[in-house]
Specification:
Largest sheet: 15 strands, antiparallel
Radius of gyration: 22 Å
Strand content: 25-35%
Order of helices and strands: HEHHHEEEEEEEEEEEEEEEHEHHHHHEE
Length: 439
Amino acid sequence: MSGDGSQGDTTQSNGVKNHRSALPAAMFSRNNASMWSVLKKCIGMELSKITMPVIFNEPLSFLQRLTEYMEHTYLIQKANASQDSIHRMKSVAAFAVSAVASQWERTGKPFNPLLGETYELLREDLGFRWISEQVSHHPPVSAFHAEGIKNDFMFHGSIYPKLKFWGKSVEAEPRGIITLELPNHNEAYTWTNPTCCVHNIIMGQLWIEQYGNVEIINHKTGERCCLTFKSCGMFGKELHKVEGYILDKSKKKVCALYGKWTECLYSVDPATFDAHRKSDIKRSDRKGSTQSNNADEEPDEMPPPETETVQVIPGSELIWRISPRPDNSGKYYAFTSFALQLNELDAEMERVLPQTDCRLRPDIRALESGHIDVASAEKNRLEEKQRMARKNRSQTNEEWKIRFEMWFHQGSSPHTKAPDWLYNGSYWNRNYSQLPDIY
């Protein structure tokens, strides 16, 4: 395949798909674009309702961005292969941490999906297939369902993040439960993602942090993994760090986990971890007492510090390490190798895709190809078409789910009883005759 990322033949002579390693065009510089002119009237507002210039986008829909959960699918397969529930929880925890790893340095905004937009990804090489759909526009809700090719797992949920602008940063608060089911073990795990924050969006160096508590529950055994994604802190010493414990059903610590969501995750005996952390705190206190504390500096105003890699505690086990990004990542929106492949479109794929698949969105396609004026015009056209469609539906009092076949329906999670969107199981039948014209 050519190095320019063209959408030509992607199959090798042995029949194995050869995924692309570049995009058709490099990203545009945002140096001369003023986000402040757009956001200065939006402080405290929900950003999904704000129209953003296409220069601030990356050439992926949010539905495609969600699919990056699956980059480290091998961790699910590793959990499946273990006969020990604590070992399975370690792998599931690593999968949950790895799911946000691709967000590091990804400062472009994915395109908001249109109501009824879908995305499929069939990766036999990685052992899964995925379908997602934008099931609601106000509020925006994205539902997804992935399953193992060997029927060895199901991974599903519905996501409706709340994006808010706070003057110097944009915060994405996670909403929605994520569920992983392992039928071979009759287990279901649920959790929510941490909060993501992009700093210095007005001026200075953009940087991202994840923070908050994530609790992973094994609903069969009662075991839990309680992780804390650390906020940066005043001097950046906690940046990217994640740590926590696996607890048995009696809430006894049986394992400690630590690492960085941008890099790796280790496990170690909890007593060893606690002793290491106490000595680390004492060293930090001694060091801090000799430094002046400039409390006038807020984390938003500081560029991300050059932090040391994770200090490995003796006796630790490596559970997960991130794959290196391609050398051309900075040229292509800081995409991982997996992300570079998400908008691939070849003739064979185009013949079977439904007309709602976001690979067919003209604005995303144009931005990926470097035609920013076309992308902007198409983005405006699609948003206006969506507004008119919604207006027509309200006038005729027709419900979306009545007019068009949907791949998900509203219900409740069988594990948490919380409201959820559940997959109806029919997408891969390839009956797409009643789908809407959204592009």
